[in-house]
């Protein structure tokens, strides 16, 4: 009887041991399946490669450099201009301070009228010795100028182009100029013009036209 009881106990112990092992295997199997079901997340890999920024060529670099080089030249020119202007002003002042010589004064612009007098007493010979039958007896004018003869003598006279030896030239002739009267003629062409008085042939004069 005791042997039968011990045999039963041993069978129960073996069955219990098998049950525990089965439970352990089932638990292990469940845990393995759970681990397989969990998604694997891999950590992102960090690249150690350094990316250098690309250097883009500046299209205005050459222009900027050129402007930088030209800047000192522009400044130099700005400094030179006031100096040049001051020199010109000084020269102008010096020219204004120099008085003009009367002998080098410019000729008046435009036609001019010149006066020649027929003095008193020329109707009597003698004025030819001092060349004062006409005053002035010889005159120089410009083309386009006019000569005006004024008779201040008491006798009548003429102003006739030509000479006593050759006679009238036909260029100009006043006919008789009475006392107190006058005669004017404009010389448009250059040249030398002799004239005389037909009433008093010793009276001679000349006009030179430039």
Automatic annotation (TrEMBL):
Matches recorded under Pfam families: Copper-bind
UniProt binding sites for Cu cation: 157, 197, 200, 203
UniProt key word RNA-binding: no
Domain Blue (type 1) copper: from-to ranges: 129-210
Cofactor(s) in the UniProt record: Cu cation
Entry keyword Electron transport: yes
Annotated protein name in UniProt: Blue (type 1) copper domain-containing protein
Protein location: Periplasm
Keywords: Copper, Electron transport, Membrane, Metal-binding, Periplasm, Transmembrane, Transmembrane helix, Transport
GO function terms (MF aspect): copper ion binding; electron transfer activity
Cofactor note text: Binds 1 copper ion per subunit.
Residues passing through the membrane, by range: 12-34
